[in-house]
Amino acid sequence: MSGNEKAAVSQAAPALNKRTWWQTFKKYRVLTLMCLPAIVFFFAFNYMPLPGIYVAFVKYNYRKGIFGSPFVGLKNFAFLAKSGKLLSLTRNTVLYNLAFIILGNVLAVFISIILNEVQSRWFKKVSQSMILLPYFISQVLVGILVYSLLNYDTGFVNSIRTSLGLDRWQPYADPLCWPWLMVLIYLWQNTGYNSVVYFAAICGIDSEMIEASEVDGANGFQKIRYIILPSLKPTIVILLLFALGGIVRGNFGLFYNIIGTNSLLYDTTDIIETYVYRATMTDFNFSTASAVGLYQSLIGFAIVMLANFTIKKIEPDYSLF
Amino acid sequence: MSTRKEEKAIEKIAFQNKKKIKVGASEMFIRALGYIVTTFYAVCCVLPFLIIIGTSFTSESVIRQEGVQLIPKEFTLRAYNMVCGSGAIWKSYALTIGMTVIGTFVGLMIIAMTGYALQRKDYPYRNVISFYIYFTSLFSAGLAPYYLLMTQTYHLKDNYLAVLLPLLMSPWLIILMKNFIKQIPHEITESGKIDGAGDMTIFLHLVLPMIKPALATIGLFLALGYWNEWYQSSLFLSSKVTVKPLQYTLYEIVNKLDQLRNSVAGQYVTVADIPSESIKMANAVLATGPIILLYPFVQKYFISGITVGAVKG
Predict the structure, then answer these.
(1) In this predicted complex, what is the ipTM?
(2) Are residues A196 and A106 in the same domain?
(3) Same domain, yes or no: A155 and A244
(4) Are residues A121 and A175 in the same domain?
(5) Which of A16, B125, B169, B243 could form a disulfide with B91 if both were Cys (CB 3.0 to 4.6 A apart)?
(6) Residues A92, A35: one domain?
(7) Does A238 sit within 8 Å of B142, measured CB to CB?
(8) Do A275 and A146 sit in the same domain of this protein?
(9) What is the pLDDT of residues A259-303, one digit of tens each?
(10) Of B48, B46, B99, nearest to B229 (Cα)?
(11) In the predicted model, what is the mean pLDDT of residues A233-241?
């Protein structure tokens, strides 16, 4: 391109751009219209609450509203940090999530591999349906199931214990057993779904590759170690990344329906979500609740960005965006 | 050519024979482990449900003396008669079914339209809009500002819309739908355009019929969301609202037990105060049954559908 031509193009460009901008908009107006309900939806329910974050920086007064209440700066955050509440909530939330993510994926991969070795089609189908069942029920029902298994008076576990001549067990008064129980319950509810995802990924592996390994004399363990696990790697990494992004986001429904307002167990089971919910709905302490919520959102956002940045450096294919 | 094909066929047959005859010791071990572990795990998944069902058919006195039952010692329909007889549950059913049907249908249409537009490679705003939607899953205002907005700005307290609207869609479902529709060849849209069809016509008449598995999968996710809904109800429906969604009704029954749960081993409450276990269980069975019955009809699509979700957007 010669200098003259360039100049001509840059001169023509503004006018042309302006017209094409409007023309493009008009040309694709139907597609934009198709997106419009979603745009309005996310604006109304996800963007509109954002200015309300300001409530974290005021001493909220119901009659004065968010923006009329006295500004207190970072006082709400300072109070939470000083009392150690923020730290203990973060610790509980992150540790539970780590256990959920790591154990959940290990178990799901294990189940999916082992399910793949089962030959009978009928058996596969029935067992898949059975392990997906817990994923379909509401968290309210999970709370009921757990209670009916574990409660002191009529619980299933205690019925068995008494029939074996053992003492009754009282988990609803013992905070120390809950980390184990919560992880177990989480695995019970979610492993089925995750293992079906992994199972499908295994079914997608080129069968010639597996047959070739058999011809070469690979035994069952070698087949799993050198063919199936490496083929699952992308799925595992992506699912882990998705989960990692939500590491400071607790599973509110699970914890609230099982623990509820049983303050005996808060030490080991209170996560950010349950604390925020109680602060909002029971104490009407919107400023504190919002301070915790904002802290959570910021940390979560930073973690996603950091994780994505790191992944992009190492293996760009795995990055989320 | 043909000889090579034949060779291959012979090889394949030989291979299949080999496979039938010789199964290594490690293979046998893994297979046996597969049957045992899967059976054990599947039973663990189902057992709690059987206990709930068993207990719902057991008389209250047996539950008090001997605890919850897998197989009822004294079979009775009393709990079901009481729950169904009160009539409140039918209103809850009507409300839940209504919300599930309306919410799933409307949500599915919006998600499909948005997913279609956002996967069109020629659509210039697709990146901007995708990010606008995706951002909401990265950063949120949190519960308190959301609650204040819904109750004080939108005045949706005690309004069913506060339950119906927020569950219509999520960024994740839109990304899932987008990935589904991406798999349809772009030539479909092109051929529609050549025939002079507009974008909406192409979407309704050419694309929609091709994405039935996606509609089934995402529809099931939406339906599950509505059927299992208790959270928005607990935020926005106060005692002024008499008819509440099924799961929230169940939640309220459970919460009457909270006091009991907190007082250790219930030594401070009298027997008369304890809400009936069997009635709770009957409610649980009635509230959960229909959505589990729905599952076999969509299973075919669902299992193939959820795997697409693992593919990057």
Answers:
(1) 0.86
(2) yes
(3) yes
(4) yes
(5) B243
(6) no
(7) no
(8) yes
(9) 888 888 888 999 999 999 999 988 888 999 999 999 999 999 998
(10) B99
(11) 82
Express each pLDDT in B194-218 by its tens digit: 888 888 999 999 999 988 888 988 9
Whether B40 and chain A come into contact, CB under 8 Å, resolves to no
Closest C-alpha to B277, from B109, B112, B78? B78
Q: Average pLDDT, stretch A199-209? A: 82
Model confidence band, residue B5 (pLDDT cutoffs 50, 70, 90): low
**Minimal CA separation from A114 to chain B, in Å:** 5
Domain that holds residue A39: 3-48
B24 interfaces chain A, CB cutoff of 8 Å: yes
Tell me the DSSP string of A18-61. HHHHHHHHHHTHHHHHHHHHHHHHHIIIIITTGGGGGGGGB---
Q: Does A203 lie in the same domain as A159? A: yes
A contacts of B33 (beta carbons < 8 Å): 114, 117
* Partner-chain residue, chosen from A35, A193, A286, that has the shortest CB–CB distance to B148: A286
Would you say residue A240 lies in a domain?
yes
The residues facing B75 across adjacent strands are B58
> What is B87-308's CATH superfamily?
MetI-like (1.10.3720.10)
pLDDT tens sequence across B44-75 = 999 999 999 988 888 877 887 777 878 888 78
Question: Up-side HSE of residue B76: CA atoms within 13 Å toward CB?
Answer: 17
CA B294 to chain centre: 10
Q: Nearest by CB to B264, from A35, A155, A173: name it.
A: A173
Return the residue of B nearest to A29 by Cα: B199
Across the range A58-75, mean pLDDT stands at 87
The answer, for A294 touching chain B at a CB cutoff of 8 Å, is: yes
Domain extent listing, chain B: 2-66, 87-308
Question: Which chain A residue lies closest to B133 (C-alpha atoms)?
Answer: A42
CATH number assigned to the domain comprising residue A246: 1.10.3720.10
Question: What pLDDT score was predicted for residue B160?
Answer: 95
